[in-house]
Specification:
The structure is a single chain. The chain has 297 residues and is an alpha/beta fold. The protein has 13 helices and 7 strands. A 5-stranded mixed β-sheet has the order 4-3-5-2-6, with helices on one face. It has a two-stranded antiparallel ribbon with strand order 1-7. The mean pLDDT is 95.
């Protein structure tokens, strides 16, 4: 959807082609599926959630982070203004909707404990992603996990229903961790380091160009997927641009992975998922192939 405009622009505007690469973009079905595609050779590169990479790495799947896309976590939980949930403490005793493969409900316990909330008192009801918004807006659940770019569509539905939203952003509540990040397998990195370097250079050049040319970038994804609403896609991409930047990206270029923040991301996921193995940092990420591309929002 609109969040992915920069990837389509990297392809359509020739940034990948100038690196000698012909790239086919496959529709994702969640971070877990993306990682499995990498490890089975059905994809060369993917953009899974960094926390999910930590989980799979701990389970022995040798996938590594190459560069951030969402440099700040896009995880949020949402309730209604004038409803029963006005603070994180109010989530206790309530039922929230989320999809089973989402990372939001997995990380929420760490957010809760960090803010004095008992996560065991929050019930999660799993639904098909396409049903979550309607269930929440109709009052069937009290709250929902939601990635920040998707708030655009939820907000539109809330306005139509005459309701206003409370948005609790994980990144603003003490859980500033990496989210979706460009990734590949250890074997890909070891066997084709030059390709990895060229792929990242082309992709991040495309993302940087798209920051400066949002309307043209969105046009590239609309050409591939004309069913998308242009105005909504533009708003989705605007949110993606917001989350492309953190302090590390501003100082060192987009995609930069800060070692301390990678460690914090790992530690949060180990705690939240009850992992018995804590992956070594050098197994989790590398910045050796990342181009230094500076761009202002």
């Amino acid at each position: 959807y609109g969040r992915d405009a920069g990837f389509f622009a990297a392809k359509a505007k020739g940034f990948l082609k100038e690196q000698g690469l012909t790239v086919k973009i496959l529709r994702g079905k969640g971070s877990a599926d993306s990682i499995k595609r990498l490890t089975t050779g059905k994809a060369d590169y993917a953009n899974p959630d960094a926390g999910t990479v930590v989980i799979f790495r701990a389970k022995g799947m040798k996938v590594k982070l190459l560069g951030a896309f969402h440099a700040k976590t896009v995880m949020t939980v949402v309730s209604f203004k004038n409803g029963p949930i006005q603070s994180l403490k109010d989530f206790e005793g309530r039922t929230c909707a989320d999809s089973a493969f989402s990372s939001t409900h997995r990380v929420f316990p760490a957010l809760a404990r960090k803010n004095g909330v008992d996560p065991d008192k929050v019930k999660w009801q799993f639904m098909n992603p396409g049903s979550i918004g309607a269930a929440f807006l109709s009052g069937k659940v009290d709250c929902t996990g939601m990635y920040a770019p998707n708030l655009v569509s939820l907000q539109k539905g809330a306005v139509q229903a005459g309701k206003k939203l409370n948005v609790f952003r994980f990144a603003d509540l003490g859980l500033d961790i990496y989210s979706n990040s460009m990734s590949a397998t250890d074997s890909k990195i070891a066997s084709k380091p030059d390709e990895v370097r060229r792929f990242l250079r082309g992709m991040y050049k495309g993302l940087a160009w798209s920051v400066k040319h949002p309307e043209e970038a969105v046009d590239t994804i609309l050409k591939e997927m004309p069913v998308l609403n242009r105005d909504t896609a533009l708003k989705h991409w605007a949110v993606a641009v917001e989350y492309l930047f953190d302090d590390g990206a501003k100082k060192n270029g987009i995609g930069f992975l800060d070692r301390k923040k990678v460690a914090f991301t790992r530690d949060i996921m180990v705690e939240a998922s009850g992992l018995k193995v804590k992956p070594a940092l050098d197994d989790l990420y590398t910045t050796a192939f990342l181009p230094k591309i500076m761009v202002k929002r």
